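Page 37, top half.
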Amino acid sequence: MTEAEYIPGGKIPPECEAASGNVLTLTPLPKIDLRDAHAIRRELGSVYRDMRAGRLASQDGTRLAYVLDMIRKAYETAVLADRLELLERTINPRKD
């Protein structure tokens, strides 16, 4: 890749055109496992390792880490809300 072709983050966007003018086929990105706090932590580690190895620009990695942290906070909030609801139902059972 020449300096003129450099794209921030070091990745070529999937919607680019080939030199022949033909449109390249989009390949779907692999799904990232974000089902629990451990999976989110593993993904954060993966982003960190990619930044350290130079496979991901630090600016892009920082953005991804920020979004992953927001996802982690949302997950924690949902888990705590579920646990609180369960405790409240245990302490104050419905009287029908």
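Page 37, bottom half:
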Amino acid sequence: MIFKQWTIGELRESTGYNQAKFAKEILHVSPKTLWLYEQDSSSLPDDLIKKYMYLFNVTYEEIFFGPKYEKIVHVQRKIAERIEMLKNIEVIEQSS
């Protein structure tokens, strides 16, 4: 099983909160600030990290820190690797 890491945007979206409401009512930051952190969470302040860990019951290791596009690229790479593995398995099964 691939270890799952969540972006802070994915965590927020899992609750159904929109960005503006979550920023203002829960985190007490501006929507623009939250938007910036959701694009690149590598500079997320410790107090917000602790809020995410508490609110979503996740560990530090389960939060993805970095530019959102890096996670997308990483996931796409893992899927491509697994597609190749699946093709190899199918070839072996067909030759048996």
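Margin note: The chain has a mean pLDDT of 91.
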